[in-house]
Specification:
The protein has 4 helices and 10 strands. The chain is of the alpha+beta class.
Length: about 150
């Protein structure tokens, strides 16, 4: 199984659209950073196709984590994501899981979510995508930027 990871993709690049095979997208992350970046205030929204570990269980659905974000903001972030994707809220430390929420895989859907997060929470989004079993040719045909490809050792 060959894996390919792309990083530092902007919300504009995602909305403009990549034509990848959505069934090959293993996981994605939108890291929403607040200025100044050095203070490490961020919200990370992510989803793993095969589920995210929660204790000894694998939970399917949208999740997020936060760092140096005022605890009073957490219900607003959760409400925003739950309103869009539904799911049962579960909390573990600084991670919130929306169990069995709607799952998104398209470039446009992920890009639109990133844009909404930027606007609603005054952040700048950086997106990462990880694929499995796509050939170099398929990655190029999808329009994914070769300069943003991070090799994953096998």
């Amino acid at each position: 199984m060959v894996r390919s990871r792309y990083w530092k993709i902007t919300s504009d690049e995602m909305v403009d659209g990549f034509a990848y095979d959505e069934s090959k997208l293993l996981n994605w992350e939108i890291k929403c950073i607040r200025e100044p970046e050095e203070e490490a205030h961020f919200i990370g929204v992510f989803m793993y196709r095969h589920g995210t570990a929660f204790d000894y269980e694998s939970v399917k659905g949208i999740c997020y984590f936060y760092n140096n974000i005022d605890r009073k903001e957490v219900p607003t972030i959760t409400s925003f994501l739950k309103g869009k994707f539904d799911g049962k809220m579960m909390e573990k430390g600084e991670r919130i899981f929306l169990k069995d929420s709607k799952e998104i895989y398209s470039s446009k859907d992920i890009g639109d979510l990133a844009k909404e997060m930027e606007s609603k929470f005054n952040t700048k989004a950086i997106i990462s995508l990880e694929f499995e079993d796509l050939t170099t040719e398929q990655l190029k045909e999808a329009g994914l930027p070769e300069a943003k490809l991070l090799p994953i050792p096998t």
